Structures are given as C-alpha cells and as structure tokens.
Automatic annotation (TrEMBL):
Topology within the bilayer: Single-pass membrane protein; Single-pass type II membrane protein
Organism whose genome encodes this protein: Pseudidiomarina atlantica
Membrane spanning residue stretches: 20-39
Keyword Cytoplasm: no
Protein name: Biopolymer transporter ExbD
Amino acid sequence: MKQHFANLIDEEEAQIDMTPMLDVVFIMLIFFIVTATFVKEAGIDVNRPDAATAVQKDRVSILVAISDTGEIWINKRQVDVRAVQANIERLYAENPQGSVVIQADKLATTEVLIKVMDAARAAGVYDVSIAAQEE
C-alpha cells in the first residue's frame, strides 16, 4: 500500500506545469508589441533636394509629403491643405514627443511648403523639419 502512494507522488512530481511559463511569454510578447516603433511612411515617393548639412532625425512621428504637383500626403492618404492642421493635431496627440518632418519634392512650390509648416505650428508642433538628401 505504501508503495502505491509513493508511485502516485512520483508521478505528480514528474509533471511540469507549463501554464506560468506561457503566461510570462504572452506578457512579454504584448510588451514588445506595445513598445515597438514602426516605420512611418508618408505615402508617396518624393525627390528630395540635396543638402550638405542634412542629418538623420530620430523620433519622427508625423511625416508629411508634398509632391511636385502640390499634393499633400499624410499616412498614405492624400489630404487637402485645409485638413493638414487637424491631421497633425490628431497624430501629435497620439505621440507628443515626436516631431513633424516635411518631405517636399524638389519641384514643389514654397507656397504649399509654407502652408504645411504654418499648419503644423498652428497645431502646436514647433519641432518641424524639412527632409533632404545627404550629398
């Protein structure tokens, strides 16, 4: 009889409960997904002008692209110039530490560029940069 109980105890001790380990793995997965930064794209390819003083900008949260025809793109969507401020306000509210980078084509007019810069500043974002290619 004692041998029978000893065998039952050995069988119970031999099993490993995997549930706590799976809980930890799923919590780590959620943590890495939430804290990951994703590459932002404006939505169109822009031929940026060359600049000798161009530097890499970190923590970019809002990319605005201006095409050679004056079209404005934010988050892969074409946006009217009157809606730029509202879009920047919404994106800035999601990530207040980020900045605005304007990717203006070489052939884009300065009028559209200034309107986008004014809209960004009106939205409360004063860290506005213009993208350029390194020479």
